[in-house]
Automatic annotation (TrEMBL):
GO terms for molecular function: transmembrane transporter activity. It is a multi-pass membrane protein. Signal peptide: none annotated. This is Proton-coupled folate transporter. Its main location: membrane. The chain crosses the membrane at residues 12-31, 79-99, 111-132, 138-161, 173-194, 200-223, 267-291, 311-327, 334-353, 359-380, 392-415, 427-447. Pfam families: MFS_1. PANTHER family: FI18259P1-RELATED, ZGC:174356. Residues 525-540 have a biased composition (Polar residues). One of its GO terms (cellular component) is membrane. Residues 525-546 are annotated as: Disordered. It comes from Meganyctiphanes norvegica (Northern krill).
Amino acid sequence: MGISMKKTLTWLKLFIFNISIEPMLFLFYAAKTTVSVVKEDLKLERFCLVTLNHTQEECSDLIHNDNIQIEVQHLDNDFLFFESVVGMVIPLIFLTFIATWSDKHGRRVPIIAPMTGFVIWCTIYFFEALFPTWPPEILLIATFLDSCGGGFTTFLMGYYSHMVDITSENTRTTRLGIVMVVKNLGIPTGQVMGPVLHHAGGYLLVFGSAAGMSVICIIYAFIMVKPKPQNKISNDSSNSPFCNSIKNNLVQFIRTAYKRRPGSDRLCIIVLLFGMMLVNSSQPHKLYLWTRRVLKWDEDQYTLYKTSSELIGQLVMLIFSLIVKFGKVHDCHIGAAVTLLLWSKLISLGLTTRPDQWWILYLFLISPDSFGSMTVRSVLSKICGKEDIGRVFSLLGIMEVIWSVVDNAMYAAVYDASIKYYPSAEHLFGAAITCILFAIFLWVKWIQDWDTIHQKTQYSNSRSPTDASHNEIPSTHIIISNAHIQDRETATDNHIHHHVIADIMTSEAITPNALQNNKDDISLSASETSQTNSQGNESYHYSDVD
């Protein structure tokens, strides 16, 4: 008994002393989701009262005033598109350099800057609620100033990179799992808090509380996340102009993603990057506006659904993860299955036209929608390898920011055209996108299987009595040898490696003399270019665990 209690106390002590930014993540996610529904109500109210000049009585009962609600939702739909445009530019710039910069200086800035932007956002919404005559267009300023902190994508990159920095390989998976659980618990907490605070003290209490929680998070992060010591910061970080740094990073991302690779790997990466855009476009977009228009829901009913969705979603994710782990299912098969479930959900929502069909939304709470993006990232990481995945994920983040504008433009056009006669049309549009995504997952699995069979055939032919000799080595062995050469010359031979691979892939078998010549060429070229490449290639670690 005494030994067991001692072990428990020791474990508890280690757990407490290992706590890092987990409490901050819980509180900040709660703050973000506290305002998620209430902010939409404020915008709808301002469009109705200020822009359209309707009376308070008419605007307080939009659910039962179809004509006014259609007018208001038209304005809000257009506003959401402009928000996506205004909020894109600065995060796009941030993503091209902040990860490399934080590798040298620490993660404090990419964690604190987005939270500071959110505090400014809450402050402007607070004053918008305080002065009823202010037009809703002022809220675009809030979106822009929020984006000046780097946006939520920068925050994700910052806290994930920090957790990678402070954990060992043995404990990293467990710690990241704990982080995911903690932050996800903050989401339903905030969704419950929002309506409660709104009923208790109106908009001012909601936005004031969210700003206060975010300030606490900033102070906590400032204390817990330490910058790197100055003597560990590379002296060459100030030699490159800011614009050149952004350009060079972006070029590196693109070259890494589209460089020549064995088999069909490069084509698979290109297709999967496009597939990730479709994953984002296949999710329901105007869900809150749609539930108000079709199901006649109010804020409380929608919040109940979203809270249930988050809680049940976590349980479904856990069960699905266990099935995937012990069932040893291929990633592409998982993606295809999840996409098929999502297609069924969108088709069902697309055919929903009456308030008494509300149960359809709850029926699909068991659909693990987020597994689509996780599957794409998993397949990408396995194709790219550890040395390239950081840059590929960075390019993916940039593409997602740019695509969000295209995505919002498409759905804004669909919803605007259909809101009066058939508002569920946007779900049918999403279902059509999932068909393409489903085909992508199956194609990637097929092409990978084909590459495997082709490589085995080549290897068998190279070992046949008519072709094999002691002076010949299969090209697959050359590629492996070349990978070892690249490991020794990581800082200087990226460009040379591409040409060597290209030469190797054109021949069925290469003699040891040719291999030695390739090694000599690489060593010579690497030494000749060491002066021009003294800065090396910075490691860019970014992955989104969300």
